[in-house]
Amino acid sequence: MSLRVGQGYDVHRLVKGRKLILGGVEIPFSKGLEGHSDADVLVHAVIDALLGAGGMGDIGQMFPDKNPYYKDISSLRLLWEVGQSLSRAGWRVENVDSTVIAQAPRLQILRKEMQGNIATALGIPASMVNVKFTTEEGMGFTGEGEGIAAHAVCLLNERGAL
Question: Fewer beta carbons within 10 Å, N or C terminal of the chain?
Fold first, then answer.
């Protein structure tokens, strides 16, 4: 049996004139995340964790921001592609655990929707995805409302192994 653990991290600056998308959910807020795709830091951290565990590089290698195809693309679409690549390589996602770091907006009421979106993109039960939220008590760039960050870890298992 072969198990692999992956860790991911992403951060994006909050700017005016962009939608705020986290976990595939559009959140009403005065600012959104700056980036080439929809800049969903939560999903990006999950993608990097999965790619790391699978030994497949990182999000920038798989989906380069110089490629116009990925301009404003849904990060859930990218996550689906990563899930398909892992499956073709013989890996099964056992679980994903993540944390979003943001002073505002408050996100707890969106937890189940975000978990469901991530699980659906990966073709796994929502019970295998955990999303947590925290602030930095007003400290640092996330605490001062300049950006949002996310961390994620995952466990992969060889397909067919228990």
Answer: C
What's the burial of 90, exposed, middle or buried (CB within 10 Å: 0-12/13-18/19+)? Answer: middle
Residue with tokens 């110089």: 66
Report residue 110 CA to chain centroid gap. Answer: 15
Contacts made by residues 112-119, CB under 8 angstroms, sequence distance 24+:
113/23, 113/24, 113/25, 114/22, 114/23, 114/24, 114/25, 114/42, 115/23, 117/23, 117/24, 117/25, 117/76, 118/23, 118/24, 118/42, 118/43, 118/46, 118/76, 118/79
Tell me the mean pLDDT in the region 155-160. Answer: 87
State pLDDT tens for residues 48-97: 999 999 999 999 999 998 999 999 899 999 999 999 999 999 999 999 99
Q: What are phi and psi of 19, to 5 degrees?
A: -75, 145
